[in-house]
């Protein structure tokens, strides 16, 4: 009986641990502040996101994409900008997060 109980506890612990594993989107930081301007435009192949840092500090941000890999982490000094382009049929813009 003790072996069955130990196996059941072990299985339950493994199931719970798996249930709390972070997905890629959850692993990223919180949503970027409003001083990071983002403008999403649809393209024939997917979408592009214009990112501009109007914050007082350097910001590290990443585009979170649902159903596809997220962007790399962009380091933007105050006044800097960059464009992330996604090409694919499954991904959708989710949000811009700090990283």
Automatic annotation (TrEMBL):
InterPro entries: A-amylase_inhib_sf, TAT_signal. GO terms for molecular function: alpha-amylase inhibitor activity. It comes from Streptomyces sparsogenes DSM 40356. Keywords: Signal. It comes from the Bacteria. Residues 1-27 form the signal peptide. This is Beta-Ig-H3/fasciclin. The lineage of its organism: Bacteria, Bacillati, Actinomycetota, Actinomycetes, Kitasatosporales.
